[in-house]
Design goal:
Blueprint: E1 4-6, E2 19-24, H1 35-41, E3 45-50, H2 65-68, H3 72-81, E4 89-93, H4 95-106, E5 114-118, H5 130-153, H6 162-174, H7 180-189, E6 203-208, E7 228-233, H8 239-242, H9 244-258
Parallel strand pairs: 2-3, 2-4, 4-5, 5-6, 6-7
Antiparallel strand pairs: 1-3
Helix pairs in contact: 1-9, 3-4, 5-6, 5-7
């Protein structure tokens, strides 16, 4: 695995300066999905991203990741150990948000100074028996892949015929790792759960009213986390891309409160004209 430091307009803080953010993408997505959010956060952050095993950017048939490798949280712990510098903040989207959530819940000590969960996969307590969840999960995966494809196409999607888009979605689904639906279902069935009440890491949960497939008001079940702040907005599943300015502003306000920026090392000098 290879972590990449996202760069954008303005100076990138040198190592040891600025808040260090590690971001994990969702199912069939890739690390580049965080580019716009990193740009909006600005030069006060060092934003590291990685292509997870559930990445959908690689051409060719899907790999049987879900059936043969460690679970998302175990993979994330291994990946963070290879990060070039310790992460102050963990950010996850969709399936990646659940990897972050499980990592926080299973850590022996606080795994980060703060976390942001964007559109996590959450099941309301006492709802949807397993057979219904299975069908809905498979349909939701297809819809999320389709929506993600439209987001990446941007305005070009308007010029793509429906039948052509359906073929593109089919090809993207072929690259979804084998067994992914079962792993997503497992994550849905695993929430809410008692150990979340032990997660003391300050956590911002962003869910969208327009994303009833996998998030929406379901994120309220994460309120059992003592340091969680759940915000529901009229956003879609890919709000970190489509509403990057608003999401970045909300994240920055949250970070300013819970993860104060590091003070400059050594003496400083001000020059007045």
């Amino acid at each position: 695995m290879t972590w990449r430091l996202l760069t954008g307009p303005g100076a990138v803080p040198p190592a040891g300066r600025g808040r260090v953010l590690a971001a994990v993408h969702g199912l069939a997505d890739h690390g580049g999905t965080w580019q716009e959010l990193a740009r909006r956060l600005g030069p006060g952050y060092r934003c590291w991203v990685v292509d997870a095993p559930w990445c959908g950017a690689v051409e060719g048939p899907a790999t049987p990741w879900a059936a043969t490798s460690a679970g998302p949280a175990e993979w994330l712990r291994t990946a963070l150990a290879e990060l070039p510098e310790p992460a102050d903040v963990l950010v996850g989207h969709s399936f990646g948000a659940n990897a972050v959530l499980d990592h926080l819940a299973g850590a022996a000590r606080p795994a980060a100074r703060a976390a942001v969960l964007i559109a996590p996969l959450v099941r309301p307590a006492g709802r949807a028996p397993r057979p219904v969840l299975v069908a809905r999960t498979r349909a939701a995966i297809r819809q999320v892949v389709a929506d993600g494809l439209r987001v990446r196409l941007g305005r070009r999607a308007e010029a793509v015929a429906d039948d052509v888009l359906a073929v593109m979605v089919g090809k993207a689904l072929q690259r979804v790792p084998d067994g992914a639906a079962e792993v997503v279902l497992d994550r849905l069935l695993a929430t809410p759960r008692p150990e979340l009440a032990r997660v003391v890491t300050p956590t911002l949960v962003l869910a969208g009213l327009g994303d009833q497939r996998l998030a929406g008001a379901r994120a309220d079940s994460l309120a059992v986390m003592p340091a969680a702040r759940v915000r529901v907005h009229p956003h879609g599943h890919f709000c970190h891309v489509t509403q990057a300015a608003e999401v970045a502003a909300e994240c920055a306000e949250f970070f300013d409160r819970v993860v104060p920026a590091a003070a400059p090392a050594g003496p400083t000098m001000e020059v007045y004209a």
